[in-house]
Specification:
This protein is 19% helix and 32% strand. The protein has 288 residues and is an alpha+beta fold. It folds into 2 domains: 114 residues; 126 residues, Nucleoside Triphosphate Pyrophosphohydrolase, CATH 3.90.79.10. Strands 12, 13, 14, 15, 16 and 17 form a 6-stranded mixed beta sheet that branches.
Length: 288
């Protein structure tokens, strides 16, 4: 999956420090990331040493092995010139979707995780309670309002991925009006006051209209594309009625498929695809 970068280690311990010349700088514009890919498709970002002549605000993000990553926020007055200068070296803005398959995987994971944090920092520049300008905390990854005292932490939305099985088949679906067009599993966000198990039952019933039983937790995955922490479950149809009642606002299609019809996962990026692969390779409901 996208976070599986072993043997390298991801360390997101908070530090309040500035980069040296070797620090890797992640720059974003709106929902796009500033990066470069070489002739072999290898991903890279500017170093702080390359940016010494430019005025940027730096925020420490995390470390992967010995490489430190920083969010770089250029002053608006120099952003265009900086982009044009680095553009001559091959740097350009790309949609974060590139991180699903980009290599090396640790750089891809850094890029999408940094994108998640950059969006959070940008959206919390002003207090949502009183409207005052906020300040970054020096001891932890937190933003506070100096006027009303409100505090903000990075957004993490719990959600479920559900593999529903019955008689050696798995229920797969396709989203409606989303960028991702391939088969997926039932998925949805946890609601206030709801256990994660209750989310499984509700989402399956809402999207395909079938009851489920025998929930088995499989694995979790951070999913920065939607600020989510995904929790994967295998479960079984409760009863023998396989009729699907499709939520046409969310899905374009859904059906029951045998293992041999489960598509091959070429990206090795998402929990959904891994769970479908586990089902296919087990020839049915896997032992977990």
């Amino acid at each position: 999956m996208i976070q599986d970068i072993e043997p390298k280690q991801f360390d997101n311990s908070f530090h309040d420090r500035q980069p040296d010349s070797s620090g890797i700088v992640l720059i974003y514009q709106g929902r796009k990331a500033f990066l470069r890919t070489d002739a072999d498709g290898m991903l890279s970002y500017p170093s702080a040493g390359m940016l010494e002549r430019w005025e940027l605000t730096y925020i420490y993000l995390f470390r992967i092995d010995e490489e430190e990553y920083y969010l770089g926020i250029p002053e608006m007055s120099i952003r265009k010139q900086l982009e044009e200068t680095l553009g001559q070296l091959g740097f350009t803005y790309e949609d974060p979707w590139i991180f699903r398959s980009a290599v090396p995987r640790d750089r891809a994971y850094a890029g999408i995780t940094g994108w998640q944090l950059a969006d959070w920092y940008d959206s919390r520049r002003y207090c949502g309670s009183c409207g005052s300008r906020t300040e970054r905390d020096k001891k932890e990854r937190m933003i506070r309002c100096p006027d009303c005292g409100r505090t903000y932490y990075p957004t993490i939305c719990p959600a479920v991925i559900v593999a529903v099985t019955h008689n050696g088949k798995i229920l797969m679906s396709k989203y409606r009006d989303r960028q991702y067009r391939r088969f997926a599993l039932i998925a949805g966000f946890n609601e206030t006051g709801e256990s994660i198990e209750a989310t499984v039952h509700r989402e399956v019933m809402e999207e395909v209209g079938v009851p489920v039983k025998n929930l088995r937790f499989y694995k979790s995955q951070p999913w920065p594309f939607s600020d989510s922490l995904l929790m994967g479950f295998f479960c079984e149809l409760d009863g023998d009625e396989e009729t699907i009642t499709l939520d046409q606002n969310e899905l374009s299609e859904a059906g029951w498929y045998p293992p041999e019809d489960v598509p091959v996962d070429f990206e090795h990026c998402a929990l959904t695809s891994e769970m479908m692969t586990v089902f296919r390779e087990a020839g049915g409901y896997p032992k977990i």
